[in-house]
Design goal:
The structure holds two protein chains of two kinds. Chain A is of the alpha+beta class. Among the domains of chain A are: about 120 residues, no CATH class; about 90 residues, Immunoglobulin-like, CATH 2.60.40. Helices cover about 50% and strands about 10% of the residues of chain A. The N terminus of chain A is likely disordered. By secondary structure, chain B is mostly helical. Chain B has one domain. Chain B is about 70% helix and about 0% strand. Chain B is built from three helices and no strands. In chain B, helix 1 runs antiparallel to helix 2. Chain B is rod-shaped and about 65 Å long. Classes of the chains: A alpha+beta, B mainly alpha.
């Protein structure tokens, strides 16, 4: 029986406190500020000030508390204010609008003071104190119960972890060799879903979900994931095909620079940072842009050798005709590094004040690919402190990384997170940790794996679900993400269970040769498409290795018309080109252009017959091929 | 009784408002339906520009709450001023009527 390396089987350590020192300091500061508000709020009573002052003071105890003190009908405004305050907190969470809860709280206190008559309800302070006490007791008991449950979970994980790691290691499928990398026609139909969206003219955003630009349904995330999917496809299956596949990735990068994609930051920077003069999207915070976009840029540049986005000012974020923020991949990644180093948590916010560990995983992954491309060591410089902070400030008592923490107050905010989501990124820069995370995910996902209607195992979640891509009911997003992560770790059995769930529940259709799930969001569909072509370590290798070196020097397929020519495989050993093409519409003769041949050299194209041709002075050749179903084509030097 | 009626009015407005915005934002509880975004094909006519419905939805959430808040504040201010007016009028009446002053 295989034994897992000792360092991988480090048990989860039960900590004295579930909050690290920075979190504790922020929470203590928050508590002290609230205590000061209680004291200041009581001072008018202490000094016998006017009724209006007493009411305003009590308004500092709770949002709308002043209305309780006004008495009479005004008491009805207390629950109204609490509801409005809840909305304001949601606005703070969703869009970084830190001023919203402050305005509601202080505004209601002032309004209550203005409404005050000659007297104040005498029982108001006691009533409010009882409410505050009740909330405090409820919260304390809730947290205690949660901590107890998490510790039980921790102990259970420590029991099974060693065996789970052995299991995922021994059952993981082997890494697919380059010689075997070829998309099936069914997988090509999934790829077409992404290509259709990426090949539309820049500026058009048809086929995307358009809901809001602040949270998970935002266009920018859909663009990022399209880029990751097409980039991983190119790196692992068609590294010697540029043409419309590279064009699609460039289109997505150019689209990302449009104000409709990144303009949310103008608002968030204003109402979150109180910054009205410099809404540079790659300055402070906003790792949901820099980290995510950095990966997309890095993958494209790694696949193609195209360094255009390394040129100064090559990524202009245009605000209006008078103002543009010039960036390039260097300034994007320097923003990530600087924010990591400046943040007391190391991990830093997306929206102002909100720190999402998952987005910080994107940030660290972007540094990993940047380091490989440009020979820097940003990952090495930041990773130790980053991991330490992740473990101490952003991990709960069960050993799981939390979803979200307020950087300002230190309070943990409910946001879904899971080992499967983090593991795929940690596989790039901390693979041993990733394996541990995946072992936990693999074990705990067994509880939702059940026989489907055909008897084959499938994932089955209870309830209505929630698709983060468009905020509609459904588990498609979860199934797609699990399938994608499972494939990264060679857990094809679990991936198939997820795929069956998708096929049975999410409206599978392949009309017009494009495979999609009609009951899911665009974002979830993109993840499902990536999951369909994903093999073991594909994402890790796309980030950490890139395409074979020969692919960056040898012949490439550049000219092919979409969708008439679909490319299932494109590899070069340096002198040759190994292609597998499919007709996207119907069997037909199609022209293809090959570049990076040796200028003037003679070549042979073999595709059932042999055809000799000569490369022109630029090392290019235009060829006509008969596409009939799966069409393998091999181009080799004539000698 | 006007006071209770007004209380019911405010509460009713808030409750009705919440129910309406809940339906407006989250929709009725229905099974997942086809997402039109997934149906689009390259080369198909551009989809009609869709407004950010959620901007309006959030407005719909805030609006009834704001209305209730303003109405309540307005009523409170009105009651406050009415009380002051009555107090002044009573004071004038007392001053003009020595008999009332004696009784008091």
């Amino acid at each position: 029986m295989a034994v897992a390396p000792r360092e991988m089987v480090q048990p989860f350590i039960r900590r004295e406190s579930s909050e690290g020192p920075v979190t504790t300091a922020r929470q203590r500061r928050t508590a002290m500020i609230y205590a000061a508000m209680l004291v200041v709020g009581f001072l008018p009573y202490l000094f016998g000030l006017s009724p209006a002052a007493r009411v305003t003071g009590l308004g500092l105890w709770l949002p709308g508390g002043g209305f309780v003190a006004v008495g009479g009908f005004a008491i009805l405004l207390f629950p109204v204010t609490l509801a409005l305050f809840a909305l304001a907190v949601f606005a703070w969470f969703g869009a970084g609008m830190v001023i919203a809860p402050i305005i509601v709280w202080l505004g209601s206190a002032l309004l209550a003071g203005a409404m005050t008559g000659d007297s104040v309800w005498s029982l108001a302070p006691l009533c409010l104190a009882a409410v505050i006490g009740g909330i405090a007791i409820y919260e304390y008991r809730r947290r205690s119960a949660r901590r107890t449950a998490d510790i039980v979970k921790l102990e259970a994980r420590n029991q099974y972890l060693a065996d789970a790691i052995v299991e995922v290691e021994t059952t993981a499928a082997p890494i697919t060799a380059a010689a075997e990398r070829e998309l099936t026609f069914d997988e090509l139909s999934s790829v077409r879903y992404a290509l259709e969206r990426a090949l539309q003219p820049v500026g058009q955003i048809n086929g995307y979900d358009k809901v809001d630009q602040f949270q998970t349904s935002a266009l920018r995330y859909q663009i990022n994931y399209l880029g990751y999917m097409l980039g991983m496809l190119q790196c692992q299956y068609t590294p010697s095909f540029h043409g419309y596949l590279s064009e699609a990735q460039r289109n997505l990068i150019d689209l990302y620079l449009q104000k409709q994609i990144w303009g949310y930051w103008v608002y968030e920077s204003a109402w979150g940072h109180l910054n009205l003069t410099n809404p540079d999207p790659a300055a402070k915070d906003n790792i949901m842009l820099t980290g995510w976009f950095g990966i997309q840029l890095g993958i494209y540049m790694s696949n193609t050798g195209d360094r255009r986005y390394a040129q100064p000012g090559s990524l202009p974020f245009r605000l209006n005709k008078h103002r543009v923020f010039h960036h390039d991949i260097h300034s994007i990644e320097q923003s990530v590094v600087k924010n990591f180093m400046d943040s007391e948590f190391c991990l830093y916010p997306c929206e102002p004040n909100w720190v999402y560990p998952i987005c910080n995983h994107f940030g660290m992954t972007s540094l990993a690919i940047y380091d490989r491309l440009f020979g820097t060591s940003y990952t090495q410089a930041t990773l130790d402190r980053w991991l330490h902070s992740l473990d101490t400030e952003f991990t709960d008592d069960s050993g799981s990384v939390i979803g979200l923490r307020s950087g300002l107050t230190g309070i943990k905010f409910p946001f879904p997170a899971g080992e499967a989501g983090f593991a795929i990124f940690e596989n790039c820069f901390a693979p041993d940790r990733a394996k541990k995370m995946w072992a936990i995910a693999h074990t705990e996902l067994k509880y939702i794996t059940k026989p489907g209607p055909d008897g084959a195992p499938r994932l089955m979640l209870d309830g209505r679900g929630f698709d983060f891509g468009n905020y509609k009911p459904g588990f498609g997003g979860a199934y797609a993400a699990i399938m994608d992560s499972a494939r990264e770790f060679g857990d094809y059995e679990l991936a198939e269970s997820a795929r069956r769930a998708l096929d049975q529940d999410c409206g599978l259709t392949a009309e017009g040769g494009i495979k999609r799930y009609s009951k899911m969001s665009n974002l979830s569909n993109i993840n499902a498409a990536r999951g369909a072509i994903h093999r073991r370590d594909d994402f890790r290798n796309t980030i950490m290795q890139g395409p074979p070196e020969a692919a960056l020097k040898g012949p490439i397929l550049t000219g092919a018309k979409y969708p008439d020519v679909l490319v299932a495989r494109a590899f070069s050993n340096g002198d040759d080109l190994d292609l597998v093409l499919y007709p996207g519409m119907s069997d037909s003769s199609q022209n293809i252009r090959i570049e990076r041949l040796r200028a003037g050299a003679n070549y042979v194209m073999r595709n059932g017959t042999e055809h000799q041709f000569q490369a022109d002075d630029s090392g290019a050749a235009l060829l006509t091929v008969d596409l009939k179903g799966r069409t393998p084509i091999r181009i080799i030097p004539a000698n | 009784m006007p006071c209770c009626a007004f209380a019911a009015f405010i509460l009713g407005q808030v409750l009705i408002g919440f129910d309406a915005v809940k339906r407006f934002v989250f929709g009725r509880t229905t099974p997942a339906v086809v997402n039109p975004a997934t149906e689009w094909r390259l080369g198909a006519p551009a989809a009609p520009a869709s407004r950010s419905r959620h901007a309006f939805r959030w407005f719909a959430i805030a609006a009834p709450i704001e209305i209730a808040l303003v109405l309540g504040a307005g009523y409170g201010l009105h009651a406050h001023r009415s009380h002051d007016h009555e107090a002044s009028a009573l004071g004038a009446l007392v001053c003009r009527s020595p008999r009332i002053a004696q009784i008091r």
